[in-house]
Amino acid sequence: MSDDAFTESAVASPAPTRPLNLRQIEVFRAIMMAGSISGAGRLLHVSQPAVSRVLALTESRLGYALFERAKSRLTPTPEAVRLYAEVEQVYGGIQRVNDLAIALGESGAGVLRVVCSASYGQRLVPRTLQAMRGRTEKSRVDYRSVTFDELAGYFLTGRADVGLSMSPPAHPHLHSVKLGRVPIVCIAPPYHPLAQREFVQPKDFRSAQWVGYPAGTPLDMALAPFFGETPPRPAAVEVHSPVTACAFVLQGLGPALVDRWCITPELADHVVIKPIEPAAHVEVWATHSTLSPLPLLGRRFLEAAQRVIEAGA
Known about the structure:
Blueprint: H1 3-8, H2 22-34, H3 37-44, H4 48-62, E1 67-70, E2 73-76, H5 78-106, E3 111-116, H6 118-122, H7 124-132, E4 140-145, H8 148-156, E5 162-165, E6 174-188, E7 211-212, H9 218-222, H10 224-227, E8 237-238, H11 242-250, E9 256-259, H12 265-268, E10 272-275, E11 281-289, H13 296-311
Helix pairs in contact: 2-3, 2-4, 3-4, 7-13
């Protein structure tokens, strides 16, 4: 900034009743910090005469002196000392704003609140958070596994920033976008007859003791195209989550149809995984509230989840 522009920005009106502008406050603070007009000029990268003009205008506006002149030295008046204490509080607040702005850009701020179905919490969410780690090391994540019926309530009460589910919740204040889809597979105990099949078909569930899902649940609806005109035998055990189905299969209660994301490496070591024909899939939907903007961490979470899904289960 030129000296003329520097001075003009501080002029406005010299009337004592007018408040100080930001340029005059900046010059006053620089003089207090440097202890001299020349030192303040170096701090602000302007000439000594420009600083002197702004100081004269400032004292004229205030109606009292801020410094006592003694040769080349300036001594702050009691009024200047009191004013400087308030100015430093303001600049401390500005520094905090700058620190927050930098933190938001570098690593996010605060806590990212994630809710999702238990199935996607097995591997999809952990892998997504791992993919984010390089840019979010200073952030924290509050993760909760919720049922589909509970999902909307978490957003509407401000307890969640972003969520993942197999179906989008229907609510005018929620926005959902499909990130991708995941194949459904059959898992069975190693000794089960289905473990010997190349692939599993709908007819295999006409007589099998299997673990299924109540009507209307996301997995039940996703399996409708698979069963088609071949309705299965009623499941011996019905569960509301594929994660629970995995636990029941692990205990030998029969086969189950689950999404690929819920199968952990540890589970895969103890069950047999078979593809199904015809193929069926579940979708991955991301949801956030429209009542407040999605925070930066939330946007990064969705970007990372998209990459992880595209890489495959």
